[in-house]
Amino acid sequence: MSPGYRQRIGGRTFWVFQQRQTGQIAFNRNWDDYVSGFGNATEFWAGLENIHNVTATSQRNLRVEALTFDGGFYAFEFLDFTVGDSSTNYRMNYSSFMRVNSTINCDFLSHHRGQQFSTFDRDNEAAPYSCSTNYGSGGFWWSSCLRINPNGVYSTTLKPGASYMASRCIGSYKALRAMQMMLQV
Ligand SMILES: [Ca+2]
Questions:
Q1: Which positions fall inside the Fibrinogen C-terminal domain (predicted)?
Q2: Most buried pick, 33, 130, 152, 157, via CB within 10 A?
Q3: DSSP label of 33
Q4: Using one digit for the tens of pLDDT, what is the confidence trace for 129-184?
């Protein structure tokens, strides 16, 4: 598994806990993999236990960056992001979307706020079917079901579809070329 890494952006330091840019690592993983983490230096999920631990001592700013196949760059930030421990199924919360630090005014995470984590083998969301199974088999804080799919299927070309690594906020669910999720530390 990968422990993620730290990077500087505009004078701030972020711990990158999710990164995808080639598709060489499959993200259709089970609960245990999402808890402990998986991947290599370029493609990884650092694990819910690690993400929980980083937000357990202090609320963090979440930053999500995305690149599109036509050269677009997007960034989104969220204030006071936390992930609970295993007894909550790693429930996710945040206080507000930070428009000032985001490239566009679109909060894809509000739909997911307060949700437990779910994977294809652990359904903790309210849809009468598995959101994970229906949308690419990745793990996420699925609601019923999504506005963003960071751990969805990686496509090497621009294709439409919510099963891909895609968001409603970016071209209305078109496969993205790269994505990072990180916490300010
Ligand atoms: Ca369900």
A1: 1-185
A2: 152
A3: H
A4: 999 999 999 999 999 999 999 999 999 999 999 999 999 999 999 999 999 999 99
